[in-house]
Input
Amino acid sequence: MAKENRDWGYDRIVGALANLGYNVCDQTVGNVRHGLPPAPERKRTTTWSAFIRAHLALLAGTDFFTAEVLTLHGLVTYYVLFFIHLESRRVDIAGITVRPDELWMKQMARNVTMEGCGALRDCRYLLHDRDSNYTQSFRAIIASGRVRSAVRT
Output
């Protein structure tokens, strides 16, 4: 019960057990913690996996992959920016460029936060790494679309 309900203390767990027909004392619950910290500490220490499970419908991730293309001018590296909605696993290719500079990234941020049709239309959190392409201006435009940037290392 303590793992599934991070803010429940001993008394709340005792009450839930009483509803199920088990009469135990709160000290007994405190003695059987199995390595779990007390409720106040559990509330403050949410793990990434617990956060993702709780917010799966509101989460999207973004990253780049590259594609090497042989052209008349030689081998050219293209950068592909994509977004994935974690619950549905829907992938949206935001754009492809040979140089993902700040102006291009700002335009991609505007595109994906468009009201009603952007790739982040149903999301509230965007997971990304610390790549320098995710500039402050990119994150500001994402935030203006009511999507909070959550940087994962």
